[in-house]
Design brief:
The structure holds two protein chains of two kinds.
Chain A (H helix, E strand, L loop, with lengths): L6 H4 L8 H17 L1 H4 L14 H23 L6 H28 L1 H15 L5 H21 L15 H10 L1
Helix pairs in contact in A: 2-4, 5-6, 6-7
Chain B lengths: L1 H10 L2 H19 L4 H13 L4 H26 L8 H12 L3 H33 L5 H18 L4 H16 L1 E2 L6 E2 L5 H4 L4 H19 L16 H8 L1 H16 L5 H15 L11 H25 L5 H12 L6 H6 L1 H32 L4 H20 L2 H19 L5 H21 L12 H27 L15
Antiparallel strand pairs in B: 1-2
Helix pairs in contact in B: 1-17, 2-4, 2-17, 3-4, 3-10, 3-15, 3-18, 4-5, 4-6, 4-14, 4-15, 4-17, 5-6, 5-14, 6-11, 6-12, 6-14, 6-17, 7-8, 7-20, 7-21, 8-20, 10-18, 10-19, 12-13, 12-14, 13-14, 18-19
The chains are: A mainly alpha, B mainly alpha.
């Protein structure tokens, strides 16, 4: 064993660069929420404290601010770990994938689930650096399997694509029902 | 006997059997792929299960929950990478055994210990049922409020070394739950005159963002990797026999798993720590621990697999989830108007027994599957991680969009995805947010209804169970302070390690 002797050690996390940035943003957010407590919640006359509409948001917000302040202080008091800003850049880089995801969501009601999924998986696979036909084929096959499983077989509630209305009547109904 | 037969009747349907097969085998596969995990799979499948019968939906989810840890042991032992976070301790002894050329023995022991832990925990659940059925009706609003409060305190304190972070994230969960229209005066809380905030944050949207989408983002922003695992030659049945040599360690470890699983907010990590410590202290070869000790491997796997069965106890009997996965399952109950809690044991006992049988069967199916398909699973492990990210993101869409066909839900889930990515990269836990949301909601409702009959603070704890729960809260806080003082005085050095990855669950 040797690596840990106490529960404290077993559950110890090792800090990562960027801790202070997150702690600061979280604390500021909590303080801003606390400043809005009066405007954004009401105090109902004649109600007990625990039944007040304001009570639970206050518990949450003050808990966030209190623990957030302690977390912030422990981050400030800890040694600085190099690589803070590259880490923040990594967080920001994830926004690109938010964009891809929302584009996919936007596309589904227009071109339908099947085509949107195949397009999304194919293009994102290429974007992630896979250029071999084998990988692109695997992406397409996986996309098709996902559509068949969730839409065709499990009939999960998803809108039919506007594009399907341009198809001949029988095919249009078939596509709207199963894809 | 009648109860057992009527429960079997509930299960004797093709869709339930199919769900059992898909859930248990799917869970093993999902668990075996590092970077996916049961939480991601359950989050994605949750909305799809809403259209099923409760027993079918829960069978799929229970299958995944109960079997993912079996699969997670494969990469932990073969490539030193835990398939799920709770298999991290398995790498300590499993991987050194592989390095010594004992991969087959390690896998076989891990499967056997997992099976032993899983079965023992369900047997405990079955044996405890009459007691639960007797105790559960004694839980009124104030007892459930106090149990939820104890749960949230335990969630925060169980994250040793990051109590402040866990506290702020649990509070964030409580805050998220309070956003939107409140049920007393129907006033809006923190809606900022935005219609999309007026309906509050949907638990499923937050869960999908924090677990599934964040995991996709994690894999997509990181370097590509395709782990290579060696083939395993020979029969895997030998571990079942060998486990008998270590039956004491297996039994005690499973016992710790059951105990820790029953207590909301504690879970696998504490169970594993206690069982591993016990196994080492009582071993004839303690120096072997961390270098390929079969006892260490058994302690880890028996303890973590005993938790799912036991975690169903507070969920079914009181409607209180102890960790993120049971919190997700709670929503399946609610969607189908099956309210877990005291009433379930009184009115739907055959449903409860059917769930027990499902859990027993899934362990048998998984063990049988693993004995013959481990080499197939070692191939699945090799899926490139970025490609896996693309697949998870595509699957997450189904999960979020099928709820209400709402673009806004997807945007909110993406925002939580980014938050989850930041938390995971910072080694901060995600679970307290989810439990804060769920337990915060329970506390709000139960405290309001309890206060109608409470005149003085003493009234809150004047019933036996309420008093016991109150004492437990004081005891937990007292013990935490005592431990901190003791460890501070002992000035124990804290070596860095990467065990605590609960955020990946």
């Amino acid at each position: 064993m040797g690596r840990f002797e106490t529960l404290q050690q077993m559950f110890r996390r090792y800090r990562r660069p960027g801790d202070l940035v997150f702690a600061t943003i979280f604390l500021l957010f909590a303080l801003w929420l606390a400043s809005q407590l009066q405007n954004q919640t009401i105090w109902a006359n004649g109600q007990q404290l625990f039944a007040q509409p304001r009570f639970w948001p206050a518990v949450g917000v003050f808990g966030m601010a209190g623990f957030g302040a302690l977390h912030f202080l422990s981050s400030v008091a800890s040694d600085r770990i190099p690589g803070r800003w590259p880490e923040v850049v990594t967080w920001i880089r994830s926004l690109e994938f938010v964009g891809w995801f929302l584009a996919y969501v936007w596309l589904v009601p227009w071109v339908g689930y099947l085509l949107a999924t195949l397009l999304f998986m194919g293009v994102l696979t290429i974007r992630m650096g896979y250029r071999e036909l084998r990988m692109i084929g695997a992406a397409m096959a996986t996309g098709l399997a996902i559509v068949l499983l969730f839409r065709t077989f499990l009939q999960v509630r998803l809108p039919g694509g506007q594009l399907y209305h341009l198809l001949p009547d029988g095919l249009s109904t078939f596509m709207l029902t199963y894809f | 006997m009648d109860l057992f037969l009527s429960s079997l009747d509930t299960l004797a349907r093709l869709d339930v059997l199919l769900a059992l097969l898909v859930g248990s085998i799917g869970g093993v596969i999902i668990g075996a792929i590092p970077g996916v995990g049961a939480a991601v799979a359950i989050a994605i499948l949750l909305p799809a299960t809403f259209s099923f019968d409760p027993i079918v939906g829960l069978t799929v989810l229970l299958g995944i929950y109960g079997s993912s840890m079996y699969g997670g042991a494969i990469p932990a032992i073969l490539i030193n990478t835990p398939g799920t976070a709770v298999n991290a301790l398995t790498t300590y002894d499993g991987y050194p055994m592989t390095q010594k050329g004992q991969a087959r023995r390690a896998l076989s022991l891990a499967y056997s210990a997992s099976f032993f832990g899983g079965i023992l925990s369900i047997l405990c659940l079955i044996l405890l049922s009459p007691v639960l059925a007797w105790i559960a009706p004694m839980f009124g609003s104030r007892e459930i409020f106090l149990a939820a409060l104890l749960g949230i305190i335990l969630v925060v304190l169980a994250h040793r070394g990051q109590v402040f972070a866990a506290g702020m994230l649990a509070s964030f969960g409580i805050f998220l739950n309070s956003v939107g229209l409140e049920p007393v005066r129907y006033s809006r809380r923190y809606a900022f005159d935005q219609s999309w905030l007026a309906s509050g944050f949907d638990l499923i949207v937050v869960v999908l963002g924090l677990f599934a989408i964040s995991q996709a983002f994690m894999l997509l922003v990181d370097k590509d990797d395709a782990p290579k695992a060696q083939r395993v030659e020979g029969s895997l049945f030998s571990g079942l026999k060998e486990l008998f040599r270590f039956k004491r360690v297996a039994t005690v470890s499973s016992g710790f798993g059951v105990l820790m699983g029953m207590i909301p907010g504690v879970g696998e990590f504490t169970a594993q720590f206690l069982s591993y410590t016990y196994a080492r202290r009582t071993s004839k070869t303690p120096e072997e621990f961390g270098k390929g000790s079969p006892e260490g491997l058994i302690a880890s796997e028996a303890a973590n697999n005993a938790v799912p069965g036991a975690a169903m106890i507070p969920l079914l009997a009181l409607g209180i989830p102890g960790e993120a996965l049971t919190a997700m399952m709670l929503s399946v109950f609610y969607v189908h108007n099956v309210v877990p809690g005291p009433g379930l044991f009184q009115n739907d006992m055959d449903f409860v027994v059917a769930l027990y049988i499902v859990m027993l069967l899934l362990n048998v199916i998984v063990l049988g599957f693993l004995m013959f398909s481990t080499n197939l699973l070692t191939k699945i492990i090799q899926v490139p991680t970025r490609f896996l990210g693309v697949v998870i993101l595509t699957l997450s869409f189904v999960g979020v969009y099928s709820l209400r066909n709402s673009f806004t839900d997807c945007a909110i889930a993406s925002a939580f995805g980014v938050l989850g990515l930041i938390l995971k990269r910072l080694n901060l836990p995600v679970v307290p947010i989810i439990l804060g949301m769920v337990l915060g909601g329970i506390m709000e409702v139960k405290l309001r209804s309890a206060m109608a009959r409470v005149r003085t603070p003493w009234d809150m704890i004047d019933r036996p169970i309420a008093f016991i729960l109150f004492c437990a809260i004081l005891l937990v806080i007292g013990l935490h302070v005592r431990t901190l003082v003791k460890e501070h005085r002992a000035r124990v050095e804290d070596p860095d390690h990467d065990i605590h990855d609960s955020q990946m669950r």
